[in-house]
Each structure stands twice: as C-alpha cells, then as structure tokens.
C-alpha cells in the first residue's frame, strides 16, 4: 500500500542518532548500543521537539532532577520519528534551571524502552511518510542511572549544534534524491501518456518544463556533492548546511508540484508514486528546523562574516 516508503526512519537511526552515541558516548554506551543498532536489532530515535519547543531548542521544558547518583526525568516530547518502534531514545533535557542561559543547562540522556515511567503515546497520523512511525513520548518520574547521561553534564546544546549540520544535510540529500526520482517518474510518464494523438512529451511546453526541472536538479546535485565533500573533510559549517536544507527542500516541493501537474489527474491518485512523493515532500521544509529558521541562520552567518 505504501510503495516507495522506506519503512522505519533508517536515515535518522543511522546518520543522526548513532553519531551522538559514537561521538559523545562512553566506551560502555558505545559497546552496549552501537553493535545492536548497526545490526538493526535496536532502533534509535532522538527526542528534541516538545509541544512548546520546536525549532527553538532552548525552549525545552523536559527536566531531569538529580536524586543521589540517579536522575529523575519528567516531561513529554512530540513528533518523534521512530518513537513508537524505538528501543533507545536520545532525550534532550534540562538539567540546570539556574544556568546563565538555557543553552548552558541542557543535557542528553539515553532512555531505553521498558523503563518504568517511560510511555509511548499514540502513533500520529501524518499526511505523508506513512511507513515511518511518529509518536508522542511521555516521561513520568523515569529513574535514570548516572550511566544514562550521554556525554558531559550541561553540554547537550553544544552537542546538538555540532550534529545539526549533518542532520540538515541529510534532509537536503534526501530532497535532491527525491527530485531525481520524481523527474524520472515524470519523464517516463509523459513519454507514454498520449493526448491529441501523440505522446504528451511531444508538447513543447512539457519539454521546456522538463528542461527547466532537469537543470535545477543538476545544479542541486552539484551543490549537494560539494556539501558532502565538506562534511567528509569536517569543514561543513552551519550556514552552508542551512543553505543546503533550505534550498533543496524548497526545490523538492517545486519539483513535486510540477511533476504532479505533468501527470494530470492521475498524479492526484494515490496509486501513482508521484502522489506519494508529493505528500512526502511537504514535511521537508518543516522538520530539522523550519526553513524560516534556516533563513535566520543563513542571515546570521552572513552578518557575522569578517
């Protein structure tokens, strides 16, 4: 029923969650989780977003209070990809309410499925990405051992800022890949679909539209490959990652709209892959930081350049 869907959020599991554990986890945490996550026996999630804190991570209210050597975690998260299936969740949590800024009082914890007080809410019904579960998570007096702290205390916001460029580049890469897929689906369709006694591909307006889309997608791929090279060399900066996420996701939505249009009425039918790609594309400018926030970050990077 959900053809062309990926299933669980494998990209988030492998390219977002696991790097937090690899880069900031203790030897024991790495040995405990990474082999099982690599084998697919454990599914990972990261819980940042709350009902009152989305792109503004400093607005997080989930709180962990020290209790002897343990921590007591309370709060809730929403829109968590893999939340329902997750065996381990990286939870963004306030640990110091008296810090000089909110950013200086945030820590990360590894919360495991089955811990007392950790409840998974309903699976949220999305308009797209149907095969990926998205859930609400609730934490009520969850007792966490000291070993559940990921990295150093109150360094969580710093870790998030380090890892978010890769997350945003991942979204951008998926966007460009989706553009390439939608273009090929549409090219194949117009070469077969007939109207006015000939294939739709013979219409000059269709040819020009395909030429325009192909050019923009190729430009996007070159930009993406450059960003991936920067990432591999550890030179990808937050501004460039924000540009990639903003531009690629906007292009994806443009390509989705125009490719669906070239399918005519059939493009609006759920049985066609372009329909699924169309609804899947809409979330790309939202998660990982909205594109409005991306513009703010890009502008900030421009204004602070010396």
Structure description:
This protein has 306 residues and is α+β, with helices and mostly antiparallel strands. The chain folds into 2 domains: 10-154, Butyryl-CoA Dehydrogenase, subunit A, domain 2 (Beta Barrel); 159-303, Butyryl-CoA Dehydrogenase, subunit A, domain 3 (Up-down Bundle). It contains 7 helices and 10 strands. The strands form 3 sheets. It has a 4-stranded mixed beta sheet with strand order 1-4-5-8, covered by helices on one side. The longest helix is centred in the middle third of the chain and has 37 residues, at 156-192. The N and C termini lie far apart (53 Å).
| CATH topology-level fold name of the largest domain | Butyryl-CoA Dehydrogenase, subunit A, domain 2
Strand ordering within the main sheet: 1-4-5-8
Shape: elongated
Secondary-structure-based class equals alpha+beta
**Weakly predicted, low-confidence segments:** none
User: What's the domain count?
Assistant: 2
Question: Which architecture of the largest domain does the CATH hierarchy give at level 2?
Answer: Beta Barrel
Portion in helices: 40-55%
Q: Ends: how far apart?
A: 53 Å
Q: Average pLDDT across residues?
A: 95
Main pleated sheet? 4 strands, mixed
Q: What letter string, H or E per element, gives the SSE order?
A: HHEEEEEEEEHEEHHHH
Family: Belongs to the acyl-CoA dehydrogenase family.
Keywords: FAD, Fatty acid metabolism, Flavoprotein, Lipid metabolism, Oxidoreductase, Transit peptide
Pathway: Lipid metabolism; mitochondrial fatty acid beta-oxidation
Protein name: Long-chain specific acyl-CoA dehydrogenase, mitochondrial
């Amino acid at each position: 029923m959900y053809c062309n869907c990926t299933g669980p959020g494998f990209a988030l599991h492998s390219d977002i969650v696991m790097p937090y554990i690899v880069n900031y986890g203790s030897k024991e945490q790495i040995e405990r989780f990474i082999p099982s996550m690599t084998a697919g026996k454990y599914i990972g999630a990261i819980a940042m977003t709350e009902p009152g804190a989305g792109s503004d991570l400093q607005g997080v209210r989930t709180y962990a209070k020290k209790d002897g050597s343990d921590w007591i975690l309370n709060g809730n998260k929403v829109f968590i990809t893999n939340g329902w299936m997750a065996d381990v969740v990286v939870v963004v949590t306030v640990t110091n309410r008296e810090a000089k800024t909110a950013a200086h009082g945030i820590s990360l914890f590894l919360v495991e499925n089955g811990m007392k007080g950790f409840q998974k809410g309903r699976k949220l019904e999305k308009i797209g990405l149907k095969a990926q579960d998205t859930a609400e998570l609730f934490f009520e007096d969850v007792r966490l051992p000291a070993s559940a702290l990921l990295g150093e205390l109150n360094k969580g916001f710093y870790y998030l800022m380090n890892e978010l460029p890769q997350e945003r580049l991942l979204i951008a890469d998926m966007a460009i890949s989706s553009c390439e897929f939608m273009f090929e689906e549409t090219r194949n369709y117009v070469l077969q679909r007939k109207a006015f006694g000939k294939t739709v591909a013979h219409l000059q307006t269709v040819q020009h539209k395909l030429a325009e889309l192909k050019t923009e997608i190729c430009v996007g791929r070159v930009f993406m490959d450059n960003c991936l090279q920067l990432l591999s060399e550890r030179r990808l900066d937050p501004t460039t990652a924000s540009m990639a996420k903003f531009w690629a996701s906007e292009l994806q939505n443009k390509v989705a709209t125009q490719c669906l249009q070239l399918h005519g009425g059939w493009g609006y039918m759920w049985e066609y892959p372009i329909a699924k790609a169309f609804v899947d594309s809409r979330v790309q400018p939202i998660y990982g930081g909205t594109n409005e926030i991306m513009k703010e970050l890009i502008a900030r990077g421009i204004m602070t350049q010396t």
